[in-house]
């Protein structure tokens, strides 16, 4: 990773659009929305639970990918120069995720059992300062606005210098975005310097906000469903799992993009695949470590309230699904990604990261549903069909980003010495 060859001239390549792709994504959204409506009419509680678990999955993956780009910015990574924009592409789903979150503000007693328990349970009453709907809705909305707003601003700063280097190909849609992003343009070199200076300051703040907001989101929409139970590692397990999901999603999207254009295949090479594979492998171990760190303390403590959450997921009908999640999220990536060859083989890396996505989707489902219906049913056709609604919007937003902006970042951040020299020149 010490010798990174970044070409002096990077071609401008956007993803092409096809009518079959439009029809496929539209069909997924339509089928998923129909399944959501039908399930809500027949079993409203089940529809709410499926909706929340799907939102937690798709939002966390998109947010984790953006945070991955921010982390590589902080450490001044250069290995990911050709896939950095792939991670940023997931930011396109974040505004949609905020809109999809708004119906969750209407969740009441059927989802939050502590609302009813507050009237008679002295332990829950002691948590009333935190567990109350006005405060929950306020912190959720304000926190998401702050996190998504910072993420979109970070993405804008990374994209804006590119817009000055590329044309609009006579496409009115592209011209409109170019006009918006080049308002008050200072010149190419000045824009690159200003963007990079701001990005370096913004990225650490973005990560701190990410850790805080993602923690209380999972506290509110998963841990509070069993209000006697708590884990101080629950937030970290969720937001680090989201980061891992963002890395795996970046790897999966990179493998797919390599087959879409010769330039993508050439520049997103073995080095990028190898590093993405190493990170995917490492975080599968870290995700399992965080889970075991929670479990071992609960196991040897033998306190009934602390064991309740684990017991609900360790006995029938949920035990089989819990073991499946462990198999998909740890055993498969650990065994399949040992060594260099599988990490640098697109087909293997793509299959393993797709399996991880399925495992994390099931994990989000397990975070929510067993607390609300411990006796089952575990899962039917409705849950994956509802997931199609989210998946269609998720993939549609990602494709919109790649058809609007260059898939490979054209401008590359300067080395520190070059940046200091440029800053001095502009100051003079």
In short:
With 428 residues, the chain is an all-alpha fold. It has helices at 19-42, 44-74, 84-89, 94-101, 114-117, 122-125, 133-163, 172-181, 188-221, 234-258, 262-267, 270-301, 304-314, 319-336, 340-344, 346-372, 382-404, 416-427.
Walk me through what this model shows.
The chain is an all-alpha fold and 428 residues long. It is built from 18 helices and no strands. It has helices at residues 19-42, 44-74, 84-89, 94-101, 114-117, 122-125, 133-163, 172-181, 188-221, 234-258, 262-267, 270-301, 304-314, 319-336, 340-344, 346-372, 382-404, 416-427.
Strand-helix topology:
Blueprint: H1 19-42, H2 44-74, H3 84-89, H4 94-101, H5 114-117, H6 122-125, H7 133-163, H8 172-181, H9 188-221, H10 234-258, H11 262-267, H12 270-301, H13 304-314, H14 319-336, H15 340-344, H16 346-372, H17 382-404, H18 416-427
Helix pairs in contact: 1-2, 1-17, 2-4, 2-7, 2-9, 2-10, 2-16, 2-17, 7-9, 9-10, 10-12, 10-16, 12-14, 14-16
Which characteristics define this entry?
428 residues, mainly alpha
Tell me the number of helical segments per DSSP (H or I, 4 or more residues long): 18
Shape: globular
What is the succession of H and E elements? HHHHHHHHHHHHHHHHHH
Total strand segments: 0
Question: What value does the average pLDDT take?
Answer: 90
Low-confidence stretches: 417-423
Largest sheet: none
Task: Measure the end-to-end span.
Answer: 36 Å
Helix and strand content put the structural class at: mainly alpha
